[in-house]
Each structure stands twice: as C-alpha cells, then as structure tokens.
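Problem 12. The chain below contains 122 residues. Write out its predicted structure in token notation.
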Amino acid sequence: GILDFEGWDVTTRDLGMVSGIVCVGMGDAAASLIGRRYGRRRWLWSGGKSLEGSLAFALAVVLGLSIARIWLLVGGWDRDSGDPWTATLGKAVIAALGASFTEAVLTGGNDNVIVPIILWLL
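Solution.
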C-alpha cells in the first residue's frame, strides 16, 4: 500500500542524481560511436582509446548535464543553487573532462562502474 513508500519521498533533486546515467548513457555511447568512426589519434598509452572519442565523451556529458539542469529548472525542482549558468557550465566542463580522462585511462572492463562515480565526485 501507500505506507510501504512512507519516508522515501525526495523533495529536492540535483544534477548528481542523474550524472551516472548521463555518463554511461550519453558519454560512453558518444565515445564509442565517434571514437570508432572518426578516431585517428590515440592516447599515448595502450588500450585503443582515441582522443576524438574522449572529446565526444566530454561534449556529450556537458550537453547531458546542461539538459538535466534545464529539466530541473522547468520541473521546478531546482532550489536555486545560486550558481549562474556560466558557473554551472564551467563545473560541467571540468567534471566532463575529468571523467573523460578517467575513461581513457581505464582500459579494462570496469570503466562503466568507476567513471560514473568519478563524475559524481567531481
């Protein structure tokens, strides 16, 4: 019944709640698609990751986080973090670049677990 969900309601939302989905759903997908098709320049270490794929990852994450912020504003859930859009975009760029670099360094199969956590921490 309705009492089963008592205490589980979330009254506020923030970008951290969707950052993992944006990271794997948009960033990793963009890196794979763009990197396989247009990737010409490789990172210095082995693993096969391309600079073009890493750039696509970062751009997709910035776009996804920006869309998520707009969704929060339109939905009325953003409690005015006090950050202007320039600061929000700056933070998104820094976090996306950090997550993209982490994704490029982790050449094993565990990057879909670690990279969203790194993005959330950044």
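Discussion. Residues 17 and 92 are 14 Å apart (CA to CA). Students who got a different answer should revisit the alignment rule from Section 12.3.
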